[in-house]
Design brief:
Strand order of the largest sheet: 1-2
Structural class: mainly alpha
Number of helices: 13
CATH architecture of the largest domain: Orthogonal Bundle
CATH class of the largest domain: Mainly Alpha
Number of strands: 4
Distance between the termini: 59 Å
Largest sheet: 2 strands, antiparallel
Strand content: 5-15%
Length: about 325
């Protein structure tokens, strides 16, 4: 407190005027740089598993490698060669067509399976285990299972189609049969993933929504359309992105079943890339191919994500 004076009728009258006291400043918090040591293992792991291999591929994509010590810089020549290759373009069309068919089949089937799955009782655990079983099987084992299952001589599926239905089915000689086999194999293997994601989304819907629909005497279709489907939008966005990326990069299953044949009927981009990199050992074109492959996946995923998120607003 301070005392200030003012003069009234020749006298000095003292008055007290409050003055705000200065608040003590909080001590500056010191930055703990030791926290970077906790992040360092992740940084090192990502560098060795992603960044360094990616930079190595970029380095090979602009060189013509004759030997480990004999290389020639060629710039963007390999990128131009790959982008103009008709075989690569045909493989791109096949891969896009396969991914589109996978999405058109697996998303509706997965949602339908999630809707009919039980929500309470002991059958919930049984249904979840049975649905998740195909996801627990390794990819190469899935290919081997369907390679035997679809054979017309010893496979149950192929023998039934040939002898019971009277259809001449042979996926090793007919390109359409090979395509259908690979497509059905992927649907069998990965539809459970969509079903489990959709089932989790359905279980998160509060029960009062369904009670209100029951009071309004809403039909099952109306309940699904106006209550369940809108609340599955986020889950289905994730399912579509996951299934597109995986189907667009599919390799193991069709390679085990058909090896990309007959001819080039099931030769997708991944199989063609493996053929160039491992079979022909063309390091430069394979590196450029892999970078373009990576870029196409990123672009399509960005487009899918942008369209799906904006349509939900």
């Amino acid at each position: 407190m301070t005392v200030a004076g003012s003069q009234v009728s020749g006298e000095v009258v003292a008055r007290e005027t409050p003055v705000e006291e200065e608040q003590p400043r909080a001590p500056l918090k010191r930055r703990n740089n030791r926290a970077w040591w906790l992040v360092l293992p992740v940084v090192v792991s990502v560098a060795f598993t992603a960044v360094i291999p990616l930079m190595t591929v970029v380095n090979f994509s602009v060189q013509d490698v004759f030997s480990p010590v004999d290389r020639v810089f060629v710039g963007l020549e390999w990128f131009q060669t790959i982008s103009r290759d008709p075989e690569v373009r045909a493989a791109l069309v096949r891969t896009l067509l396969f991914s589109a068919q996978v999405l058109l089949l697996e998303i509706p089937l997965g949602v339908a399976l999630a809707v009919v799955m039980p929500r309470r009782g002991v059958w919930v655990s049984v249904a979840l285990v049975l649905v998740a079983l195909p996801l627990l099987i390794p990819w190469n084992v899935v290919g081997t299972i369907w390679q035997i299952f679809a054979r017309g001589d010893i496979g149950l599926g192929g023998w039934t189609i040939n002898n019971v239905l009277g259809i001449n089915f042979n996926y090793t000689l007919d390109s359409t049969d090979a395509w259908i086999t690979v497509l059905l194999m992927d649907v069998w293997h990965w539809t459970p993933l969509v079903a489990l994601l959709a089932y989790a989304g359905l279980r998160s819907i509060p029960e009062p929504y369904f009670q209100a629909a029951q009071i309004d005497a809403a039909s099952a279709w109306a309940t699904f359309r106006h209550i369940q489907l809108p609340r599955l939008r986020g889950v289905l966005t994730i399912a579509i992105l996951l299934r597109f990326m995986d189907s667009f990069m599919i390799y193991t299953e069709p390679f085990v079943v058909t090896g990309g044949g007959p001819g080039n009927a099931t030769s997708f981009l991944s199989i063609l890339l493996s053929k160039i990199a491992v079979g022909q050992f063309d390091v430069g074109p394979a590196a450029a191919f892999s970078l373009l492959y990576f870029l196409v996946v990123q672009v399509f995923c960005y487009v899918f994500f942008t369209v799906l998120t904006r349509s939900g607003r």
